[in-house]
Structures are given as C-alpha cells and as structure tokens.
Design goal:
The chain contains 3 helices and 3 strands, in the order ααββαβ. It has 271 residues and is mainly alpha-helical. Among the domains are: 116 residues, no CATH class; 73 residues, Fusion Protein Consisting Of Minor Coat Protein, Glycine Rich Linker, Tola, And A His Tag, Chain: A, Domain 2 (2-Layer Sandwich). Strand 1 and strand 2 form a beta hairpin. Helix 1 packs antiparallel against helix 2 and helix 2 packs across helix 3. The chain is rod-shaped, with a radius of gyration of 73 Å. The model has no long low-confidence stretch (mean pLDDT 83).
C-alpha cells in the first residue's frame, strides 16, 4: 500500500474540485433551461386551439433540446471524469516513479555512505599499520645504532688495550734492549781496553769518544775517534785497539743489531 504524500493529496483535492465545478455548471444549465420552459408556459396568453397545438410542438422540441443538452453534458462529464481519472493515474504513476527514484537515491546514498565509511576505516587501518611499521623500523634503527655504538666502544677499548699492551711491550723491549746494549757496550769497551797499549808519554786520565761500524758477525769495518782526547797518539792507539779487538761481542738477538751497526762509546782506560 502506497502512502500518500502531501503533494499527492493536494493533487487529488484539486481533481475532485474540478469535477465538482463541471457538475455544478451542468446542473446550473439544466436549471436555467427548466426555468425558461416553465416561465414560457405560465407567461403566455391563452390562444386559440391552433396556437396551443403549436406550443405543444414547441414544448416537445424544447424537451428534446434539453435532453440533447443533458446527454452532451453527461458525455462531457464522463469525458471529464475519464480525463481526471487518467490524470490521477498519471499522477499516481509519477508519484510511484518519484518514490522509486527517491528510494533508489536513498539506497545509493546509503551505499555511498557505507563505502565512504569502509574506505575511511581501511585508510585508518593502513595509517595505523604504517605508523606501527615506522615505529618498529625506528626501534630497530635505534637498536642497531646502539649495537654499533657498543661494538665501536668495545673495539675502541680493545684497540686502546692493545695499544697499551704494545706500548708496554715496546717499553719493556726497549728496557731490555737498553740493558742488553749497555751490557754489550761494556763488554766491547773491556775487549778494546784489553787490546789497547798506552802510547809513550800519554798521561793518566785521558779519554776520547770513538765511533765504530760493525757487520752482523761483529767484525769492525771502521773505527774513528769523533771526540779527541787532545793527544793524537792516544787517539790512534784507541782506533788500533778497536781493530785488534775485532770481532767485537754483539748480542745473539738479531733484532738488536741495528743498535750495534754503528755505535759510539767513551773510551777511558782505568790504569
């Protein structure tokens, strides 16, 4: 059952009003014709019989005319009623079409609203997923950065420790080398002194500084006084003593030979 909206009810009232107007118009015409006929009958003067016969004929013609007019009016009324019914049917069909279109439009609106809500929800979920992934990526990045920092700190600590150990080992090696060098320098001076002969007239307490070049076997390549004692004979005697003492004692550790490849030492005999 179709519910009438205000427009449909107004249309039906308008159609009913038009129908009543037509009926009223027809009735008015009929009443006017009837009054004319009655008025004609009662206002006419008595006539001879011949004249009365003519009036009867005229009244019969008037009745026929009234009947014809009545039939025409009824036909018009039926035609008007049919037209009004057609208009009413058309209005109902139009109203139904409008209602269907309105329902379809509402259906489409609701579908569009549902789709919009679905799209908004999907977008919201995508945004939440993007934020979650970004937060997870940032967390991983921070963890990786912290891991790298810790690895760098460990590497720096290990490197510092290695450097410290290397420095300590180097210092220890240098200390051992210096000790070994000092020991062999003393041995070299002792051997040179054993091979030295004091020149005639050389006073006690003289000293000089001599530079010696050696090979890996300890053989002397060159001996030169670089700081003279002031006595040429004393200086030459020291150089000759170095050559006589060849080969000079050197450490077995070959890494220390660089210290003995060319060395200088002070020569000062004790007696």
């Amino acid at each position: 059952m179709v519910n009438d909206n205000p427009g449909q009810r107004a249309g039906r009232r308008k159609s009913a009003g038009g129908y009543r107007a037509v009926v009223y118009a027809v009735l008015v015409h009929l009443v006017v014709l009837a009054l004319l006929v009655v008025s004609f009958r009662f206002t006419s003067q008595p006539e001879p019989p011949q004249v009365m016969q003519a009036r009867v004929v005229e009244d019969d013609g008037a009745r026929k005319e009234v009947e014809r007019l009545r039939r025409e009016q009824e036909a018009k009324i039926q035609e008007e009623l049919k037209r009004q019914e057609q208009l009413k049917r058309q209005e109902e069909l139009k109203a139904q079409q409008t209602q269907r279109e309105t329902a379809e439009a509402e259906k489409q609106r609701q579908a569009a609203e549902t789709e919009a809500k679905r799209a908004a929800e999907q977008k919201r979920k995508q945004e939440e997923e993007r934020k979650r992934q970004a937060a997870e990526a940032e967390k991983k990045r921070q963890a990786e950065a912290q891991r790298k920092q810790e690895a760098e700190r460990r590497q720096e600590a290990e490197s510092a420790l290695k450097q410290q150990l290397a420095a300590e080992e180097q210092e220890l090696a240098q200390a051992r080398a210096q000790t070994e060098i000092a020991r062999y320098e003393a041995l070299i001076r002792q051997k040179v002194e054993r091979n030295w002969a004091r020149p005639p007239g050389a006073p006690q307490g003289m000293e000089c500084r001599v530079r010696v070049r050696l090979v890996a076997s300890g053989e002397v390549l060159q001996a030169t006084v670089v700081q003279s004692s002031g006595n040429a004979a004393f200086d030459r005697s020291v150089e000759n003593a170095v050559y006589k003492a060849s080969p000079l004692p050197i450490p077995d550790d070959k890494t220390l030979f660089d210290y003995f490849r060319e060395l200088e030492f002070k020569f000062r005999p004790e007696g």
